[in-house]
Amino acid sequence: MKLLPLVLSLSATALLAPLAPATAQTTTAPKPAAKPASAKPPLARSAVKAVEERTPIDEDSDVALTEADLAVAERVHVGQIACELGAAVQITPAKKQGFFIVQVQNARNQRYFMHPVASRTGAIRLEDPKRGALWLQLGNKSMLMSQKLGLRLADECMSPEQQTVASEMKRNPPRSLLEPLDPPAGTPGTPPTMPLATSK
């Protein structure tokens, strides 16, 4: 009779043994599947826009430059030109003679394909008619304007030559157009000069 409890305990142990691993499996949470190493996150919207704006510009132009236009092109200041507010404009001669690639070095990096245009004022004028942009080079400064938007994209731009002219203009300001000219003494129509009174 003493063997009956022993047999019952051994039977209970045998029945419960297979259940232990199953219980352990139910308590373990499944691991998430690892992402493949080759997967790349999608580009941000700003990055896509920057890539689009750095694409090569269309340099195919049917504009035929005259000898006068080519002479003006030789006077265009090239290289990196510093502007106000930390901006800069890079002017590079294009493969086509007399044409230039003008790039604003800022957050948007606008690029234009420009050529000389005759100006009555004597200023050097480059235009990109497709994109509606204008580069105006004066003796002491230059500026880049968007004719489509009606605003200046870069202002107070100065090459080393223009900085020299601007410094000279500060030392010797040019005569104002509104200031009357002093006619030489003795010319017709001018009142005679009265002698100063002397004390006796």
What does this 3D model show about the protein?
With 200 residues, the chain is an alpha+beta fold. The protein has a domain at 63-171: Beta Barrel (Lipocalin), CATH 2.40.128.50. Helix content is 26%, strand content 22%. The protein has five helices and eight strands, in the order H-H-H-H-E-E-E-E-E-E-E-E-H. The chain has helices at 3-16, 19-27, 45-53, 67-73, 160-171; strands at residues 79-82, 88-93, 100-104, 111-116, 124-128, 133-137, 142-146, 151-157. The chain has an eight-stranded antiparallel β-sheet. A hairpin with a 4-residue loop joins strand 5 and strand 6. It is extended, with a radius of gyration of 41 Å. It starts with a helix and ends in a 29-residue tail after the last helix. Residues 19-24 and 43-55 have low confidence and may be disordered.
Q: Helix and strand succession?
A: HHHHEEEEEEEEH
CATH structural architecture of the domain at 63-171: Beta Barrel
User: Which word captures the global form?
Assistant: extended
From the alpha-carbon coordinates, what is the Rg to the nearest angstrom?
Answer: 41 Å
Largest sheet: 8 strands, antiparallel
Mean pLDDT score, rounded?
75
Beta percentage is 15-25%
Number of E strands? 8
Helix content: 25-40%
Strand order of the largest sheet: 1-2-3-4-5-6-7-8
**Which fold name fills CATH's third level, the topology of the domain at 63-171?**
Lipocalin
Number of helical elements: 5
By secondary-structure content and strand pairing, the structural class works out as alpha+beta
Termini Cα gap: 165 Å
Question: What is the CATH C level class of the domain at 63-171, in words?
Answer: Mainly Beta
